[in-house]
Design goal:
heterodimer, A: alpha/beta, Rossmann fold, 7 strands, B: mainly beta, Ubiquitin-like (UB roll), globular
């Protein structure tokens, strides 16, 4: 099997999305903070849509307990998530530009790691980390958009997961209630719904199409 | 009156720290938006709520 050329790839996406929209997608840089159930699924949706560049950040390795919801494979257990996801994304879309950072995002390094991003997806597991990143992005990187997630655990009704515009630069996806610490934890389908909300919000921001 | 998550409360004149102390929010898990802007946590103590302010407290839960 011979892979399509880059020109063929761009032509196929342009036929699908139209020239203007595809240019908006392919010129965008999106950072994904945390490559677990949310981040790995967001990355796949954005890769398929033809986003030009993704910045993938996670310190962790693929574990057997991740595979029920995260977009990794059995043979990738033990690999850094950044490296494994980059490989999986390149298999889907060989011409996407990827920048990977295998480290923990902190208050000290966030500005540097995220400086090239137009839109930042918060895809952490930990609620305190979510709050920390939200404050840093929205108070110290005021030109950037943040698409965060809160409330996606359990087998509750899928339709409770919503996208809400909190401020002009801050969108929040999830039901804002279901905590991973309660009940049965995370289920792939509901995590994917929330990740899809986040990826879809990114595309709508880039399309400048966020009328309700 | 100050609108907090859609409800009018009689808390004008209090600081954000004083108001939050009367609630059950976990300070490490929240982001507070005031009149369209996120307030840095370091400024909660000096942020005095004004009559007509609109606040929204986003309280994060875990899972990702």
């Amino acid at each position: 099997m011979v892979l399509p050329t880059k020109d063929e790839w761009i032509k196929a996406l342009t036929e699908r999305h139209g020239k203007e929209l595809q240019q908006a997608f392919s010129s965008a840089t999106v950072a994904i903070c945390g490559l677990g159930g949310l981040g790995s699924n967001i990355a796949i949706a954005l890769t398929r849509a033809g986003i030009g560049k993704l910045i993938l950040i996670d310190f962790d390795r693929v574990d057997i307990t991740n595979l029920h919801r995260q977009q990794y494979k059995a043979e990738q257990i033990g690999m850094y998530k950044t490296v494994a996801l980059a490989k999986n994304l390149k298999e889907i879309a060989p011409y996407i530009s990827l920048e990977i950072h295998t480290e923990r995002i902190t208050e000290d390094n966030a500005l540097t790691l995220l400086q090239d991003a137009d839109i930042i997806c918060e895809a952490f597991d930990d609620a305190e980390c979510k709050a920390m990143l939200t404050e840093i992005v929205l108070t110290e990187m005021r030109d950037k958009y943040l698409v965060a997630a809160s409330g996606l655990a359990g087998l509750y009704d899928a339709n409770r997961i919503k996208t809400r515009k909190v401020t002009s630069k801050f969108y929040l996806c999830g039901d804002e209630k279901s905590d991973v610490a309660d009940g049965i934890g995370l289920v792939s389908s509901r995590v994917m719904i929330c990740a899809a909300h986040q990826a879809h919000t990114v595309l709508r921001i880039l399309a400048n199409n966020f009328e309700e | 009156m100050v609108k907090v998550n859609g409800t009018e409360l009689d808390i004008a004149g209090k600081t954000l720290t004083e108001y939050l102390a009367t609630t059950n929010y976990d300070m490490k898990r929240i982001a507070v938006e005031r009149n369209g802007d996120i307030v840095p946590k370091a400024q909660y103590g000096e942020t005095v709520l004004q009559d007509g302010d609109s606040l929204e407290v986003v309280s994060f839960v875990g899972g990702g």
